[in-house]
């Protein structure tokens, strides 16, 4: 994943946000969607995606569904009810984080006399 | 261009060759790799299946599928512990607490009357070794099932191996090493009560992992894997 240290902490929130918008998604679809939205800037690797998905599932925030597509099984992930509530919390936390980072990196000029 | 059924089978074989023996993870990663190969073919229709597969596998890094397996194992291990804990708590709430309390008191009065360090050591050794034959038979049962269905499930393995419980059973020995009971002195009532509580708790934990959970294994597997139902109809 590009700049992995910076993105790592937000991976779960990114996944939850995508699921909130798209209903149910499968692993590959998530990686492609992120790539598309960020115009190839952010590439979630399989080694990072699945641990995150499995952890969210264990926390009861995601639910899984299996469908037979073409000649194979496809595992879809979707938000549970508590997952939907948690997405709202985590998004607002992330927005606060972005705002704080912005003020730290780009402080608005102080008027000093 | 879509992958053929034969190529999907080849992908399953590929995952097995790369030490991914669990069907639940195999099927998830096979779909992922299959999608990625199909995307590659949209851009490079002439690329061979093997070449595309190698390109995708490289993306998993030097440890291959290990990261995915380890994370799944950790998550399912925690799930198993939560299941054990929920059964265990059940023995300390009404109505089962009546039985648990009775067992603790019975053991307490027995130890009060007949306590010797030999009795304590033999009881502990018996409890710990009681897991071994079950462990052997459960593993044999799982191997047989794998031979019949060609599939093994990670959570099934955790249930058959009793999670990390066989390792936890070594803990009492450390416990006794640390507290260094004065072997000549007769223990106080409080010490005897703690021993009784500890031995009964340990026996309950063993009963849960050896009997209760394996008897409900099918239900837990269905709950963990929606695909389990599809595969075992």
From TrEMBL, chain A:
**Is DNA-binding set as a keyword in this record?**
yes
**Residue intervals of the Transcription regulator PadR N-terminal domain:** 15-86
Q: Which Pfam families match?
A: PadR
One term of GO molecular function:
DNA binding
Keyword terms: DNA-binding
Q: Write down what this protein is called.
A: DNA-binding transcriptional regulator, PadR family
Give the matching PANTHER family.
Answer: PADR-FAMILY TRANSCRIPTIONAL REGULATOR, TRANSCRIPTIONAL REGULATOR RV3488
TrEMBL record, chain B:
Q: Which keywords fit this entry according to its UniProt record?
A: Membrane, Transmembrane, Transmembrane helix
Which residue ranges run through the membrane?
A: 91-111, 117-137, 158-178, 190-213
Any idea what this protein is called?
Uncharacterized protein
Species classification:
Bacteria, Pseudomonadati, Bacteroidota, Flavobacteriia, Flavobacteriales
